[in-house]
Amino acid sequence: MHEIRRDPILGRWVIIATDRSNRPSDFAINREQPVGGVCPFCYGSESHTPPEVFAIRGATRADAPGWQVRVVPNKYPALRIEGDMGRRAVGIYDMMNAIGAHEVVIESPEHDAQMADMSAEQITRILDAYLQRMIDLTNDARFRYILIFKNQGADAGATLEHAHTQIIATPVVPKRVAEELEGAQRHFAQRERCVFCDIIQQELEARTRVVEENEAFVALEPFAARFPYETWILPRRHVARFERLQREDLRRLGNILRDTLRRIDTALEHPPFNYVLHTAPNQNGEADAYYHWHLEIMPKLTKIAGFEWGSGFYINPTSPEAAAEHLRSMEWR
User: Fold this and answer.
1) pLDDT tens, 128-171?
2) Is 164 considered catalytic here?
3) Is the pLDDT assigned to residue 85 strictly greater than 80?
4) For residues 195 and 106, what is the distance between their CA atoms, to the nearest angstrom?
5) pLDDT (tens digit, 9 = 90+) per residue, 206-231?
């Protein structure tokens, strides 16, 4: 059984997932080729994945061609859905069984399709898959948080080149999200306003770091960006939880995500990137007042080295203002 262990100094949790060392890609460098030349995410390869848990498809049977977006359990999960939490301690060390969910969203039947090249309609379908799986997973009382993240390119951690996203439901709130929650709660306690809403208002007034906007969302370079061309997409209206997104806003999010990714893709010549979706934790109704869900896109242009690991500081060689100006200037339509 995998374990989740708590660092007694920093309070962060670490997943010890020894079975994942059986993955063909583990400990290999820049390896993205499917094993045996067969991509398990392509049309006709449905039998190479675990049975799907969700799909957007026509009038076709499950686990067969005919789909547009498909969600399956990860074949090498970091967390396993069966079992109990088994919370326990050994001296000062806290641990529990690695209970959770680990799923893969296969974004397109086309092997070479990348999200920046997809239509807004297809990206909206992918976002809809996120939404439906998040709604379903929040019904499991064992899960405290649901993280959606995408790795594109070997340098961003992708082990298969076929476009996909991962969903992990965890029994604890990740430290990075907990820090955001604490900061947002402090701001709300002092000013009775959402810090993300204040950021959006100030950025829309100044416009120096805004990249793209529509009636429901804004894409911007954060003031203290950790990485070159780090870009956030936030809803203009205060909403803490991604799963409460309305159907019309889902389409608008698809539009701005496509446009933003195309700007980054054009400006930086198809960089590898990660994105993560941060939303309010499950079973935390208080966060609805002060938290604000958002998507963070991080092109992989620099490497995290000793100073960053040792200090917690990030060195960003590109100012957010210059990055925003460059992205706004892109012509890709």
Assistant:
1) 999 999 999 999 999 999 999 999 999 999 989 999 999 999 99
2) yes
3) yes
4) 34
5) 999 999 999 999 999 999 999 999 99
How distant is the alpha carbon of residue 273 from its chain centre? 11
Domain edges within the chain: 3-174, 176-328
The rounded distance, in Å, linking the Cα atoms of 209 and 315 is 18
User: Could you give the CA distance from residue 320 to residue 229 in angstroms, rounded to a whole number?
Assistant: 7
Same fold yes or no, 3-174 and 176-328? yes
| 1-5, 39-43, 103-107, 263-267: segment of lowest average pLDDT | 1-5
For residues 123 and 109, give the distance between their C-alpha atoms in angstroms, rounded to a whole number: 13
Q: Which of 2, 102, 162, 164 is catalytic?
A: 164
Cα–Cα dist 88/97, whole Å = 9
Query: CA–CA distance from 135 to each of 75, 246, 295 (Å)?
Result: 22, 13, 18
Q: How far apart are CA 120 and CA 256, in angstroms?
A: 8
Determine the residue type at 25.
S
Q: Say which CATH superfamily domain 176-328 falls into.
A: HIT-like (3.30.428.10)
Query: Residue 37: what pLDDT?
Result: 72
C-beta neighbour count of 57 within 10 angstroms: 17
Predicted TM-score (pTM) of the model is 0.92
Q: What does the mean pLDDT of the chain come to?
A: 92
E strands in 177-271? 210-213, 217-220, 231-235
- 3-174 folds as HIT family, subunit A (3.30.428)
Provide the token pair at 34.
Answer: 């499917």
Give the pairing of strands 13-16 and 3-6: antiparallel
126 dihedral zone (left: phi>0; alpha: psi -120 to 50; beta): alpha
Secondary-structure breakdown of the chain: helix, strand, coil percentages, each rounded to the nearest 5 = 30, 25, 45
Work out whether the CA dihedral 54, 55, 59, 65 comes out positive or negative.
negative
